[in-house]
């Protein structure tokens, strides 16, 4: 949470942080400007001091919506600096020199946000070499902003819950759309007798999302058969909606410009073959077992290990025993959800992951089993919130039924 920033900065020895870039597609800056509808800018925070938003003059009124202390960059007359320095890089360094001097920024300074990698490398090296009393430091993983964003307050949790309710409504509307079609030769057909395709379903999903006031910048997975058995295949547009094949519907939209949700349901149209039923039962049982075991204060990676052990006991290969496996259980169990669809905390079972479940964490639980050579894939995904008191709450409210009745 934002209230943890000073503590996290002290933990890393940071005297100040700078969050930069365009706002769109830049969760760290969006987070720091409290969702204000600005194109971009710089937020500068000294440890123990309130953050300051350095903004464009043409966005001065939108910038005020951030609730932050404001600094209009026009007062530095950047065009004059550029004419004097003769290069954009030198002008940018001089601009930072003046801003840092006015805000009293010194010591170890971390930079965060989104920027072109090469441009950022040049700028940070130039700042480090040319600004007296300033040391630019970098973090490779679990950066201070990421750690702060990993825990959510009650208002953030409620926004995510509301996105989840609208997401569940889209899933329900999609199932109703499928059920509105007739069956011919073992597949769904449209009113004119032509086959219903995965591409057509994706079109309807986009419409349902729009009607719910949601957007899907990362896309949506609605995949059948072999595509359902490759975890991040989105679905081949020409595939038909055949009865008895597993369909993985993984949907991860967000409120317009804000918080994401993420849920997955797997189903078969009409009936489920015995092998699909067996896989589904194993995934369903794993989800229930892990969800019942979550507890604040425990390492999150232990649950990835738990999922691997569960599936191996039921005869499935997993990445716990073979990290290169492409059949069975082949991915991580959890990732955080918030202003990015994948953010801290993660459940990776690696020595460097020391993440402990704590109040405010919101993350997915998504066990799955995949057998591409058999055209079978199953994944079920819920979102988990660790409440302030440490209780575990499931934010996903949608049934888990394998068979969707069609053709009645």
Shape: elongated
The CATH H-level superfamily of the largest domain is Creatinase/methionine aminopeptidase superfamily
Q: How far apart lie the N and C ends?
A: 50 Å
Order of strands, main sheet, comes to 4-3-2-1-5-6
Q: Can you tell me the number of structural domains?
A: 2
| Fraction in helix | 25-40%
Global structural class: alpha+beta
Radius of gyration, Cα only, in angstroms?
24 Å
User: What is the averaged pLDDT score?
Assistant: 97
CATH topology of the largest domain: Creatine Amidinohydrolase
The major beta sheet can be summarized as:
6 strands, mixed
Low-confidence stretches: none
Query: What's the CATH C level of the largest domain?
Result: Alpha Beta
* Strand content range: 15-25%
CATH architecture classification of the largest domain: Alpha-Beta Complex
Total DSSP helices: 11
Number of strands: 21
Please describe what this structure looks like.
The chain is an alpha+beta fold and 408 residues long. The protein has 2 domains: 2-148, Creatinase/prolidase N-terminal domain (Creatine Amidinohydrolase, Chain A, domain 1, 3-Layer(aba) Sandwich), CATH 3.40.350; 152-404, Creatine Amidinohydrolase, CATH 3.90.230.10. Helix content is 34%, strand content 22%. It has 11 helices and 21 strands. The chain has helices spanning 5-12, 27-32, 60-64, 78-85, 88-103, 117-130, 144-150, 154-179, 198-211, 274-293, 301-313, and strands at 16-22, 40-46, 52-55, 69-72, 107-113, 134-137, 182-184, 187-189, 214-215, 220-224, 246-251, 254-255, 263-269, 335-336, 343-346, 362-365, 368-371, 376-379, 382-386, 392-394, 403-404. The strands form 7 sheets. A 6-stranded mixed beta sheet has the order 4-3-2-1-5-6. Strand 5 (107-113), helix 6 and strand 6 (134-137) form a beta-alpha-beta unit. Helix 8 crosses helix 9. The radius of gyration is 24 Å and the shape is elongated. 41% of the residues are buried. The model has no long low-confidence stretch (mean pLDDT 97).
